[in-house]
Design a protein that fits this description.
With 241 residues, the chain is mostly loops. It contains 3 helices and 10 strands.
Length: 241
């Protein structure tokens, strides 16, 4: 019996130690260690590629943090992560890139003051309905999610200013995109788009659009007056207005 108990302790000890690791311990001996030790002034926490299975034990003591980078920590349980981060009163920017996410947890709506969400380089195919409750979100990055269903943007009800959907395998833009009346910047690079639809012109506040590495054949004349396309030579616009 004692041998079994000792064996269990030996097996669990690394996990127990790991879960007790504090934020500053990830930067021990580095210049940034001092910054992370001052919890009252710490506004940004960069924990990308730390091989974490749980969040640092003292993460909730960083009550002033606004930016949290969790890129490339695929062993985290992101439903639990979100439940914990919802308790941080000032968190506005979260980076969950490169975490092999196949779906975004439904409890994402708990991050009610979130302004920016980075989900690039995952395996998302859709967004949960609960994302509609993120009313303050202004920036959404969905780059490099192969086979992502862009129509699921219908669940996003906030006033987006920036949207990036590079390299997600789309061949066209759904009419859903026109709901984002406050959109000023859009990136749709490295897709299979050949022609932009006329309803694209409904994005009246759009100032910047990135279209690189799309097999675009021409631009319809109905888009000729769009500010975001004013760098395109007129001869590339064809068809009727």
């Amino acid at each position: 019996m004692n041998k079994i108990f000792i064996l269990i302790i030996v097996l669990l000890f690394p996990l127990l130690c790991f879960s007790q690791k504090k934020v500053a311990e990830y930067f021990k001996g580095k210049k940034s260690e001092t910054y992370y030790l001052d919890k009252e002034k710490c506004k940004e926490i960069y924990l990308d590629s730390k091989g974490m299975r749980t969040l640092p034990s003292d993460i909730l003591s960083y009550t002033e943090v606004e930016v949290l980078i969790l890129e490339n920590n695929p062993d985290l349980n992101f439903e639990d992560v979100i439940d914990t981060l919802a308790l941080l009163p000032n968190l506005k920017y979260i980076d969950l890139a490169s975490n092999n996410l196949k779906e975004l947890p439904d409890n994402i709506d708990r991050l009610s003051i979130l302004k920016s969400l980075n989900l690039n380089h995952n395996n998302l195919k859709t967004l949960p309905r609960s994302i509609k409750k993120l009313k303050k979100m202004r920036i959404l990055d969905l780059d490099n999610n192969p086979d992502f269903d862009l129509s699921s943007l219908k669940y996003v009800t906030c006033k987006l200013n920036y949207l990036s959907v590079d390299n997600i395998g789309i061949s066209g833009l759904p009419r859903t995109i026109t709901k984002f009346k406050e959109l000023t910047s859009l990136s749709i690079r490295e897709n299979r788009i050949k022609v932009l639809p006329c309803y694209f012109s409904k994005l009246k506040k759009l100032e910047y659009v990135q279209l690189g590495k799309n097999p675009i054949e021409y631009y319809p004349k109905c888009l000729l007056k769009m500010k975001a396309l004013n760098i395109i030579p007129r001869e590339y616009f064809k068809g009727t207005k």
